[in-house]
């Protein structure tokens, strides 16, 4: 138990890095981390470096594993299952694709055009930006493993339920016709060498870092400002756990934004440290990643307005239920 706790603190929470940054701030900058400016600089440098290190290692590992499961092979695996088991598998496969919601849509088109039920592809579309493995590890590094695992479970449940409802409602007619006509080419997957898999994983790391680095810098900056500059009583007055509307407000505020989950995690961390309910913070994070306006605009290009509204309604309701549930019972996980 002691060894696991030590590994968790040093490898995930990176306490060694926090101590190094503390020495930098206090001895080089001449600032105390107990003061606002010093605390902000420490929070920013530590979180940015920690997120980039964890993100690079995790994306490399996930991408290497993913190289064994290209889209065509993934489609064939999904095609073997029917009903709720297919939705569960679609949601689980979404957790190992380190993409944002916008990047997941081309795969959604490919799966749908290949004949997979739209409910399965929507399960994939919901879980892919919401519950990828990298975000789970980062959640554990910021909060703890109980919260990270609970987040995974509720995210997958939301994806399965959402996909199942869409499947049962027979909404295929609300998918744009060109999606079904866009048949993919059946090709044999070339066997990659270990070196090619390593190069693929490296390229994925570079590609994803290029896409998310700005959101991470902005997100950590907002988190540092919340943590060190905005008084706790102001945040509590707006998003305090005792406010019945806090989850609803956090969800509505998150929808117009666009950021990767890695950029929203530092904000969620700062909000919780200021006394905001864990459910409220997670609702904000989920709304930003699963319901952002850019992803909705892209999705509108492949589905009709009614299906888009049903999808957004299901996910919004799910996020609200999850948020209020975490606020009510989250203390058991802290």
Automatic annotation (TrEMBL):
* Mode of membrane association: Multi-pass membrane protein
Name the residues that span the membrane.
43-65, 86-109, 115-140, 147-166, 212-230, 242-259, 271-293, 305-326
Localisation per UniProt entry: Cell membrane
Tagged with keyword Membrane: yes
Q: Does the keyword Transmembrane helix apply?
A: yes
Q: Which UniProt keywords apply?
A: Cell membrane, Membrane, Transmembrane, Transmembrane helix
Query: A Pfam family name for this chain?
Result: ArsP_1
Q: Which domain of life is it from?
A: Bacteria
Q: What is its main location?
A: membrane
Q: Might you report a single GO cellular component term? A: plasma membrane
User: What PANTHER family is this protein classified in?
Assistant: PERMEASE RV2963-RELATED
Q: Which family does it belong to?
A: Belongs to the UPF0718 family.
Q: What is this protein called?
A: Permease
The organism of origin for this protein: Desulfosporosinus hippei DSM 8344
